[in-house]
Amino acid sequence: MKVFVTREIPDIGFELFKKAKINFEWHKKDSPVSRRQLLINVKECDGLICLLTERIDREVIDTMKNCRIISNFAVGYNNIDVDYAKSKNIIVTNTPDVLTESTADLTMALVLACARRISEGEKYLKDGKYKSWKPKLLLGMELRNKMFGILGAGRIGTAVALRAKAFGTKIIYRSLNKNLSLEEQTGAKKVDLNFLLRHSDILSVHLPLNEHTYHLLNKQKLQLLKKNSIIINTARGEIIEEQYLIELLKTGKVRAAGLDVFENEPYVNPALLKLQNVVVLPHLGSATVEARNGMAELAAKNVIRVLQGKRPLTPV
Ligand code: GLV
Q1: pTM value?
Q2: Pairwise CA distance, residues 19 & 10, whole Å
Q3: Does residue 173 contact residue 157 with C-beta atoms inside 8 Å?
Q4: Which residue, by CA, sits nearest to atom 4 of ligand 1?
Q5: How far is the CA of 169 from the centre of ligand 1 (A)?
Q6: Torsion of CA 122, 128, 131, 137, to 10 degrees
Q7: Catalytic residue positions?
Q8: Which of 4, 115, 149, 215 could form a disulfide with 45 if both were Cys (CB 3.0 to 4.6 A apart)?
Q9: Ligand 1 atom at minimal distance to the Cα of residue 94
Q10: Ligand 1 site, CB within 6 A
Q11: How far away, in angstroms, is 200 Cα from ligand 1 center?
């Protein structure tokens, strides 16, 4: 049995392979594995742990001779052709739950950074401009009594809503299904997409990326955003048609954006970098020791279980 891991992951994952006496190899560089190297390595492996930086498409899947499981080191799995893998009897798994709290925390960090102009304030100070306290310096927005819109009330959206509730916001959400637990815990109301866009003072995106959500927030939808609202994306960049968001940020119709993900990641549109009312992060949603250890453990356990003939813990 041989497992290929496309990057160094926290030790806990590798330790589990050692304990299970499963051979493993990993791409030792701190940059994505090249396509060529990926194709060479997947050819003979029995299990694969990959990251969202790898496109596991038909070509990669067709190259696999023995692979029984593709274990994504991420909750999102838009980088994998899941249907095709399934048609070849290859199991696909992801890492839900273990990164929910971390991603929700980071979402709130972006909300507060946008509402209270944290990046602008820090830049102002570091640029040596802070000469005296001023009554009207960098005034932001209080969260209390604001309408907080959750687009996609799954695990992460729900965890964000609970946090937002603690800040005194009113919650509305748009989701395919009614989320009773969310409604009971926060008094949240389910609304349609247009209502959500028109009424949210803060709109936070928590959808998976798929053919239904790609550019869901296109020009026409973005135009519905409430004046002076804040938009946060810690899900996937491709859900928002970025060029139109940039227009709205430039004109000030949208107050600020907090973005952890981008349409053409890791490329970031230079126009975004120039805007003062944008807070950008390099996809850090799950970047805590707790979450990454949890992801390594779960990704490895899924592989081990499948190679031992058991059901994976978190199939997609
Ligand atoms: C990160 O973006 C993930 O999907 O886990």
Answers
A1: 0.97
A2: 15
A3: yes
A4: 76
A5: 26
A6: -30
A7: 236, 265, 283
A8: 4
A9: 5
A10: 52, 74-76, 99, 285-286
A11: 25
4 alpha carbon to ligand 1 midpoint, in Å? 20
Domain locations in the chain?
A: 2-96+289-307, 100-280
Residues in a beta bridge with 149: 172, 203
- What is the residue with the minimal CA distance to atom 5 of ligand 1? 74
Calpha distance 206→160 (Å, rounded): 9
| Whether CATH 3.40.50.720 fits 2-96+289-307 | yes
Q: Tell the CATH topology of 100-280.
A: Rossmann fold (3.40.50)
SS3 223: coil
The overall average pLDDT reported for the chain is 98
Write out pLDDT tens, residues 20-71: 999 999 999 999 999 999 999 999 999 999 999 999 999 999 999 999 999 9
Q: How far apart are the first and last CA of the chain?
A: 23
**Given the structure tokens 């799950």, which residue do they identify?**
286
